[in-house]
Specification:
This protein has 189 residues and is an all-alpha fold. It has 10 helices and no strands. It is elongated, with a radius of gyration of 27 Å. About 11% of the residues have low confidence.
């Protein structure tokens, strides 16, 4: 088995913060999404995650420092500490760090839940605020269109985007203002 400290590129005296920083840098560099289909990078990413899973936990790190990779353990380190993506939660320290403390499976399920929730209609007050915001955006886009020609082609594109977006927002909010039976308050249901 590889030396876990060498996998992360830190000395054995590294602090928890140094290990965390080394893990973040290495995980970002070798993440499969950044290295599309590169089997070597994927294997390196798995090694980095396995090393971090051991070295980030004080008890596991102490055990690793005591027994190391000399074969004195009764089970291999991968069996003892688990692979990077095993278990019911799909443990992945990368997702744990960058997914607000959630594992990959929890993150995926939460995203799915959010996308299937029904949106509520805005109240008349919220729709009126949206109408004003859209009108102001459209007006500013029209006002700065002539000046934006100086920054061709980006300037006119941004101005047109503001005009169309503002008009769309204003027109979309009108249906909630004139809708019969719409809520008049600005609060939640």
């Amino acid at each position: 088995m590889d030396d876990l400290y060498a996998v992360l590129g830190v000395p054995k005296t590294a602090t928890a913060d140094e290990i965390k920083k080394a893990y973040r840098d290495a995980a970002f560099r070798y993440h499969p999404d950044r290295n599309g289909g590169d089997a070597t990078a994927e294997e390196k990413f798995k090694q980095i995650n396995a090393a971090y899973a051991v070295l980030s936990d004080p008890a596991k790190r102490r055990d690793y420092d005591l027994y190391g990779s000399t074969g004195q353990q009764t089970r291999s380190t991968n069996q003892q500490y688990g692979q990077w993506n095993q278990g019911t939660e799909g443990y992945d320290p990368f997702w744990e760090m960058f997914g607000n403390g959630r594992t990959y499976n929890q993150q995926s399920n939460q995203t799915y839940t959010w996308s299937t929730q029904k949106k509520r209609d805005p109240s008349r007050g919220e729709a009126f605020s949206s109408l004003l915001g859209g009108a102001v955006t459209c007006f500013l886009g029209l006002t700065f269109f002539k000046i934006s020609l100086i920054f061709f082609p980006i300037g006119p594109i941004l101005s047109l985007w503001a005009i169309v977006g503002g008009a769309s927002k204003a027109l979309g909010s009108i249906k909630y203002i004139i809708k019969p039976g719409a809520k008049t308050g600005g609060g939640k249901e």
